[in-house]
Write a structure and sequence with these properties.
The complex is a heterodimer. Chain A is built from twelve helices and eight strands. Chain A is α+β, with helices and mostly antiparallel strands. Classes of the chains: A alpha+beta, B alpha+beta. Chains A and B meet through helix 7, helix 8, helix 9 and helix 12 of A and helix 7, helix 8, helix 9 and helix 11 of B. Chain B: It holds the Pfam family Acyl-CoA_dh_N.
């Protein structure tokens, strides 16, 4: 069967977008609002429009509601979609992480129902991975799922799940066997966020952002059909999620539709601060701006190079951790220079408004987020040292030991 | 380094390595005496036979590149020679050729000089720095005063690489019509060349004085003026110089990092290899990340200069400022991890550090290139 040529697809997309999708308004940073449910509703409506127009789920297989086309088609669509409102909120984690993982490892029923509903704009997904006691030790999950006849009973707590409050389903990693070493006793479940016993709270970050959530599971009953992959094989499913997450963060996911990120983080670039405060003529400021522009570009160049090197097998997939470190460094420099250039004005706004310099200050409060999210810098350095450079592994007392014997807290 | 090389590029690299090992080694660089020539003309001529001066020159002018992308081939060669901190006029000859080729077809004809340089029969170098001055090629302090059908050059330059062995000098000078460049024999009356100390043991630099030097109008390269005249040609020369520097420094970093990583496996203290200490693993991980970034930005700059598009200037300044900024701390970190051995004359690390100090400093410091980035971004 022949598929539509990219140029033909691009032409149809251009015409359809012009006739159906709303144009984006000006590029002002979105204010942080307490209740953003209308934004999620709007994203669902935009996704429904894409689906009705035949442009949703471009790279997902036809049998699960997608178009079965290639990354090049998605790329062409992304280029054409510039300047139009797109359901960017749904890209991560729904389309770029959860749906591809189900596609790789879910049951036929899970793929047909959940991926299809997401593509139709009816459902949103999230990830229940990290735990309050876990930190960097992701596989040290203590949320438990105990068998009860042909059901499982889920209890425990999760944290740092992005936009779980807006989601319908979550991929939840839980321990089903405590007698085997930690990576072996895990199972992934597909959990309805509205199941009895599920409580979701939003976490307020220092910049006012409330995208992250914490969840409590109190004896949530799950049918056997909720298992993703095999019982006891949850770490493999989680690894696949992490792989898709890295691809998405590196800009390499074919399941991401539209360009750019949803505007949810306040902040100001050094260039914006210099312009707003009229400091672009100061040679000292210009030098800092040059440093900022250079590192930004180097981070992009390195991302492109390492991605190609991993694809070509020149570097191992773990080399992506170098990009994680470099991206964090570029982010730190952006915040540091914004504060530096704002000078004596960084701590106060313009009347009641925080102004550009205030945005720089708020952004700075969240500076370390780039070194914490998706695994800490310290974990990335271990990965580069041990998996890329082949240096000896850190001693781990929990390796090869039944998980119930592993020490937890003091 | 490029991720994948064609068979021709691999051969180009292997042949360069062969000739390099025949004549030069790190031990030889270490033992070089003041005033001793750093390289022989015969050796350079043999290098030219392997294509060391041909990459930027079109075939009809006696050149040619193995991949058809001369700038990338030149970067490859600079890495190969740079990894051994090789002596030789790779940078000055190719930079002058870049200028002559860029200006070809405007102003006086220099076909014969291009052909002789590409064949390795002649050596040329770029005299651009005013004595003691920072990078400011558009404000030369050597003057070229028009007199009956020619010019008189007055003033001085310093940091002129390999001027002591050069046949031709490419001089950036001020004329009443703006900046201009002149290609003159080094032996012209009124030109005096004196050696200048340098930190890099395998390089030689000179101060060059011009006292009422009379030159014909035929020595002009291209046309005076900033745009599109000499300014465009000088920009091209800078771009080639910076790509060569970034490539050789990245190769130096690659080698120093490899030595240091191996050292952490071999060296034991308190009964365990240095590589097993997490504090050191993390430092090596950061260095490895910086190294990858240096490769990436150098490769991107070489590709942009090859394409000669509007982003070439920016790419070059991104790479030159980044590699310059990263190279010295990275090499000092290598020294630190080697312990006291790292600051001994017998160890190779100082040879690398010397080259990195030199290449960071000339053809624009990181600061110069950051300011250029701000200019190029129209901020």
């Amino acid at each position: 069967m022949t598929i539509e040529s990219i140029e033909s697809f691009r032409g149809r997309a251009r015409t359809w977008l012009a006739g159906n999708m709303p144009r984006t308004a000006g590029q002002g940073p979105a204010p942080i609002v307490e209740d953003d449910s209308h934004e999620w509703q709007w994203a669902r409506e935009l996704q429904k429009k894409l689906y009705a127009g035949g442009f949703a789920g471009i790279c997902f297989p036809k049998e699960y509601g997608g178009l079965g086309l290639t990354p090049a088609h998605q790329q062409a669509f992304n280029e054409e979609s510039e300047g139009y409102e797109m359901p960017l909120l749904l890209n991560s984690p729904t389309f770029s992480i959860c749906a591809p993982t189900l596609l790789d490892m879910g049951t036929e029923e899970q793929k047909r129902e959940r991926i299809g509903a997401a593509i139709r704009g009816e459902e949103i997904m999230c990830q229940f991975l990290s735990e309050p006691g876990g930190g960097s030790d992701l596989a040290g999950v203590r949320t438990r799922a105990d068998r009860d006849g042909d059901h499982f009973v889920l209890s425990g707590a999760k944290i740092w799940s992005t936009s779980a409050y807006a989601a319908d389903w979550g991929l939840c990693l839980a321990r089903t066997d405590w007698d085997v070493p930690k990576h072996h006793g895990l199972t992934m479940f597909l959990v309805s966020t509205r199941a009895p016993g599920v409580t979701i709270n939003r976490i307020r970050m220092v910049n006012g952002n409330r995208e992250f959530c914490e969840e409590f599971f109190d004896d949530v009953r799950l049918p056997a059909s909720a298992v993703v992959g095999e019982v006891g094989d949850g770490w493999r499913v989680a690894s696949q999620q992490l792989y898709h997450e890295r691809s998405a963060m590196g800009g390499g996911s074919p399941y991401t539709s539209g360009r750019g990120q949803p505007a949810i983080m306040p902040g100001a670039t050094p260039v914006e601060v210099a312009a707003a405060l009229g400091r672009t003529d100061d040679p000292r400021v210009r030098e800092l701006l040059g440093e900022y522009l250079a590192l930004n570009e180097v981070a992009e160049q390195t991302s492109a190079r390492v991605t190609r090197a991993i694809e070509a097998g020149v570097l191992p997939p773990t080399a992506a951790s170098m990009l994680r470190l470099l991206t964090a460094e570029a982010s730190h420099l952006r915040h540091d220079l914004a504060v530096e250039i704002a000078g004596a004005n960084v701590a106060t706004g313009v009347g009641n408004d925080e102004g550009i310099q205030g945005r720089a200050a708020i952004g700075f409060l969240m500076r370390q987020a780039a070194s914490l999210g998706g695994g800490s810098d310290e974990m990335s350095r271990n990965v580069v040292g041990e998996r890329v450079l082949g240096m000896p592994r850190e001693h781990a007392p929990d390796r090869g030991v039944p998980f119930k014997q592993v020490r937890n807290g003091r | 380094m490029e991720l994948a090389l064609s068979p021709d590029q691999k051969l180009f690299r292997t042949s360069a390595r062969g000739l390099l090992e025949e004549e030069h080694s790190l031990d030889r660089v270490r033992e070089m005496k003041d005033g001793e020539p750093r390289w022989s003309r015969d050796w350079w001529r043999r290098g030219a036979e392997l294509g060391w001066a041909a990459a930027l020159v079109p075939e009809e002018l006696g050149g040619g590149s193995v991949s058809g992308e001369g700038v990338r081939d030149l970067a490859l060669l600079a890495e190969e020679l740079g990894a051994d901190v090789a002596p030789g006029p790779l940078l000055p000859v190719n930079v002058v050729l870049a200028g002559l080729v860029e200006a070809h077809g405007q102003g006086p004809d220099h076909t014969a000089e291009i052909e002789a340089l590409a064949a390795g029969e002649s050596i040329a170098t770029w005299a651009v720095y005013g004595p003691g001055r920072e990078w400011s090629p558009s404000e030369p302090d050597v003057t070229a005063t028009p007199v009956d059908g020619g010019f008189v050059l007055d003033g001085a330059k310093d940091r002129v690489q390999d001027a002591d062995q050069a046949d031709l000098l490419l001089i950036t000078a001020a004329t009443p019509d703006g900046v201009a460049q002149f290609l003159i024999p080094a032996e012209t009356d009124g030109v005096s060349i004196a050696p200048q100390w340098t930190v890099d043991l395998s390089r030689s630099f000179s101060e060059v004085r011009f006292d009422g030097v009379r030159v014909g109008a035929g020595t002009l390269v291209g046309e005076p003026g900033t745009e599109p005249g000499a300014g465009r040609v000088i920009e091209r020369q800078l771009q080639i110089a910076a790509v060569i520097q970034c490539a050789e420094v990245t190769a130096v970093l690659d080698r120093a990092f490899g030595m240091t990583l191996q050292w952490t496996f071999d060296r034991h203290s308190f009964g365990r290899p240095l590589a097993s200490y997490q504090a050191l693993k993390h430092r090596l991980a950061d260095m490895r990340t910086s190294l990858e970034a240096c490769h990436a930005t150098t490769q991107a700059a070489a590709a942009a200069v090859q394409a000669d598009g509007p982003d070439a200037a920016r790419s070059v300044s991104v790479a030159k400022s980044f590699v310059g900024q990263r190279s010295l701390p990275m090499l000092q970190e290598c020294v630190q991890l080697h312990g006291g051995l790292g600051v001994t004359w017998e160890h190779d690390l100082h040879l690398f550090l010397r080259r990195a100090v030199l290449d960071r400093a000339v053809y624009g410091t990181p600061r110069d290139h950051r300011l250029r980035l701000a200019d190029l971004a129209s901020l």
